[in-house]
Hints:
- The protein contains six helices and eleven strands.
- The chain is of the alpha+beta class.
- It has two domains: 6-139, Cathepsin D, subunit A, domain 1; 150-171 and 178-199, no CATH class.
- A six-stranded mixed barrel has the order 1-2-8-3-7-6. A three-stranded antiparallel β-sheet has the order 9-10-11, with no helix packed on it.
- The N and C termini lie far apart (53 Å).
Amino acid sequence: MPHLEEHEVQRLPLNISAVITGHKVARIHVDGGSRVEVIYEHCFLRFDWDVRDRLEEDSIPLVGFNNSVSHPLGKIRLPFTVGVGDHVRTITLTFTVVQVPSKYNAILGRPGIGDLQAHASTPHGALVFQTPKGLAWVKFSYEVVSYVSDGDMTGIPRSLIEHRLNTYIWVQPVKQKKRSMGPSKRRAECEETRKLLKAGIVREVK
C-alpha cells in the first residue's frame, strides 16, 4: 500500500458497496475481526422471496465484543460481487442472518476478505484485491458524485440503478397526496429527466 501523508489518512470505518444476489447493497462494513459474514434482517427482507426461501437453520450463536449473544435467524450462501468498472470479482459467501438493530446492512468478515485475497486498509479507506482485469481499489462509500455527464451513464448495469419494492404481497398500496414544487425545482426536474432519457437510463411510458 502506498505511503500516506497525515492529511490523507482516513479515520472513518471502512464501509463499501457491493452487489449481493443481484441487489446493490450499501453500508457493508469491512471487519477483519468478524469470523463470519453477516446480513442484518432489515437488509435480508429486501431480497426476493425465492432468495429468502433458501435460508437454512443455524443454531450457532454470535458473541459480540461486549459479550452480548445474538441467535441467528439462519444462514444462506449468496453471490457477492465487488469491484470498480470492469475490475470486479464475484465469489459465493455464507452469510449469517441476524435480527439486531444496526446502521449497517451487512458485514464482510475474515472469511470473505480471505476468499477475495484482499487487503483491507482503514487508513487508505480501501479494499484492494486482484481481478482478471488487474488490481481493484474499492474506496469507502462515503464519497458523493456531484455531476455525471450523459456519456458516463451508458453501460451501467440495470441491477445497480433499478429501484425495486420487495414488500409483502398482502400490503395494500397507499396513495400519497400531491406535492407541488416551485418553478425552479420543476425546471431542474425536467432537465434531469431529459438527461436520463437521452442516456437511455429511463424511458417514457403511459
